[in-house]
Amino acid sequence: xxxxxxxxxxxxxxxxxxxxxxxxxxxxxxxxxxxxxxxxxxxxxxxxxxxxxxxxxxxxxxxxxxxxxxxxxxxxxxxxxxxxxxxxxxxxxxxxxxxxxxxxxxxxxxxxxxxxxxxxxxxxxxxxxxxxxxxxxxxxxxxxxxxxxxxxxxxxxxxxxxxxxxxxxxxxxxxxxxxxxxxxxxxxxxxxxxxxxxxxxxxxxxxxxxxxxxxxxxxxxxxxxxxxxxxxxxxxxxxxxxxxxxxxxxxxxxxxxxxxxxxxxxxxxxxxxxxxxxxxxxxxxxxxxxxxxxxxxxxxxxxxxxxxx
Amino acid sequence: xxxxxxxxxxxxxxxxxxxxxxxxxxxxxxxxxxxxxxxxxxxxxxxxxxxxxxxxxxxxxxxxxxxxxxxxxxxxxxxxxxxxxxxxxxxxxxxxxxxxxxxxxxxxxxxxxxxxxxxxxxxxxxxxxxxxxxxxxxxxxxxxxxxxxxxxxxxxxxxxxxxxxxxxxxxxxxxxxxxxxxxxxxxxxxxxxxxxxxxxxxxxxxxxxxxxxxxxxxxxxxxxxxxxxxxxxxxxxxxxxxxxxxxxxxxxxxxxxxxxxxxxxxxxxxxxxxxxxxxxxxxxxxxxxxxxxxxxxxxxxxxxxxxxxxxxxxxxxxxxxxxxxxxxxxxxxxxxxxxxxxxxxxxxxxxxxxxxxxxxxxxxxxxxxxxxxxxxxxxxxx
Lengths: 309, 382
Fold this sequence. Notes:
The structure holds 2 protein chains of 2 kinds. Chain A is α/β, with parallel strands linked by helices. Chain A has helices at 46-53, 75-80, 97-107, 113-124, 139-151, 169-184, 196-199, 222-226, 238-245, 268-276, 293-308; strands spanning 6-17, 20-31, 35-39, 61-66, 69-70, 82-85, 157-161, 188-192, 204-209, 212-218, 229-234, 253-257, 260-265, 285-290. Chain A has 2 domains: 6-222, P-loop containing nucleotide triphosphate hydrolases (Rossmann fold), CATH 3.40.50; 229-290, RRM (RNA recognition motif) domain (Alpha-Beta Plaits). Chain B has helices at 11-27, 29-49, 68-79, 94-101, 114-119, 135-139, 141-156, 185-207, 209-216, 218-224, 229-257, 267-291, 295-311, 324-331, 334-346, 352-376, and strands at 57-63, 83-89, 106-110, 125-131, 172-178. Chain B has 2 domains: 57-178, abc type-2 transporter like domain (abc type-2 transporter like fold), CATH 3.40.1710; 185-376, no CATH class. The model of chain B has no long low-confidence stretch (mean pLDDT 84). The chains are: A alpha/beta, B alpha/beta.
């Protein structure tokens, strides 16, 4: 099983903070070279799980390996071959771009340090601004610097915690191009995100809520697996259309996409009846479509919120 | 007129801020505890320990003759609350050694043939030698010894000898101020200031070493790398050794050129002391940094260390005049040992054998602080 070798393989991972269970008996298996998406609402335990994997937190229960090393006992070995990008920018704002990269390269005791830093600066396109203080960079540039810093020791595993939060779409696209290049080179990536356009780029997605894993499947199989049905409905007055559909039996979710509504629910027959009931709207058009990832995840989040009640 | 003008001062907004601060204060239990505990502890500590009217000062008595008069004198001295007899010797020179080492602040010598010469009316001398490197402690000694001597001999000089009780007294007290004959306060204060300055700056800079990383979030990056706790500790403290070196040179230059303080001892012994002392202070600061969660807490803990360092180390008040328990606290402070070492080397002609005791104690403090700091360091974000 060389090609299916699991770079992260943890079971029963549990972490409590002051009696509150943040990660609850979570299992995760990330194959080598894959891009693994980690989705879930705010506070669902994504960051905590990532920190458990790279040894920044000690699990209360559970065991497993990352890169073949025990996550509890051998975290020093894991750290040496892992690049971890924190959610909040956590390089030194009072050091220059070059100084930050140089500092990180020294911590990993890299050979040819100067060359590596120069290469990283060239890759970033920051060669002319190398002496600029990191604190003066814009959000997007900070993210790219942080990615360069966590790649400088050529890790085999990348842990990215909401790496593109607050970054413009162009920078986000560049960022993901970079991640895919790494993946082709054999680097395994676990990335948490809230963005659906990013989620679809992942090979596989684990969805967690309240510390529990609800879904873990190849990205393209997720809508079918959840079984959410969807209709695309159009009308001249979208607001009235929305109001009329809202609350009807079978309608669990209405999402607005530009000039159309996506109406979703688990019961196909009830949903079809609800859509038919607004056929008298001027400009009415309706079509059965496959539910998108975004609707699926909104649906999942709504469900897990219900679970909490 | 429904809404109030937004620019007007509103008590409601003051209340909003006030309540928020109260909530935050209550949440930050640690800072709150320091604010309450610190004044209480300090009042208890310093209120009892600080004594501007020195008493119970360590005194060595050298009785070079064994006679009824010298025994009465010794008995009278033991009654005194000013002098605490730490040693009685009969050998010339032993008392000097104790004065040199700092084990005794005073030395009282009854010379050979004292009784014989006193009876013959030759007015023999009683020698009172004081370690004047701390002029405050030396000050009251002469005034304290005269009534003791008078009372001691009065009872013995009766009958045929009662005529000797006339004035002037049948003996003379000769005082010597050792190590700082002029009683210059600056001779004591300026070298000691070196210790105070090093304590202040070194503890302060390292006390925020880790809390700043925590507050800025950079600790997460640091901990995600393979860097080890001891590496972080050394990397963060070593730069300040140079800062301490520059401070030392500046203070010593000022001492010798502006205050004309004589340098009598071994420079090498002094520098060895400065080095270990600076390290000990850096580790003390670093230990604070592993305890405090915010820079604010680190600063408060730093001041918690400053005050006893200044008040209980022998810097402000004579160390030997403090009660025993206060001396024990003082012994745990790096500054106490450094002050002895710096006075020894600058004023008391001291070199390596004499300073090795203080150097050893400083080293022990350094090792303990380093061990505690490493034990306290958290390798995870838990």
